[in-house]
Amino acid sequence: LMLRSSSSxxxxxxxxxxxxxxxxxxxRLIDFTVITFRRHVVDVGVQIHWMQRQFPQFExxxxxxxxxxxxxxxxxxxxxxxxxxxxxxxxxxxxxxxVEPGLREDAPHRYPDGSLCLCYPGDRSWRDDxxxxxxxxxxxxxxxxxxxxxxxxxxxxxxxxxxSGEKTQER
Length: 171
Hints:
alpha+beta, four-stranded antiparallel sheet, 3 helices, about 20% strand
């Protein structure tokens, strides 16, 4: 985020205190516009590096143009080891499926294709400039933890957003 003034003078907060005093009255008349910078998609090589660094048990594969990681997560010591597949789609939210052990058919917070609903798309917690090793994989482990709680109690203890109608993914 950067501020640009319509005048040739720099914004007041960039000036030294002694310089600001003389501009105090004039600055109120200056119209500032906000300039936002376009975010850049994180390069796949950077995603691979961070995944190897944070989650070495995940293996990256590119098959028929599709990019995905497959690896294991164990939310707690008493949890089973879950094998998950993360399908990486540039400029779209990654898809995460639990490969094994199989999830119950009636498990909540999943899309019609069986992929996990890890975040509410409207709050923009996943963006195309996010690192999957710092967002999607930890969210998957958290989802698995709440899934286990749900199988024990019948109640989803994780945060959730009310949905109207059938869930749809970013395509």
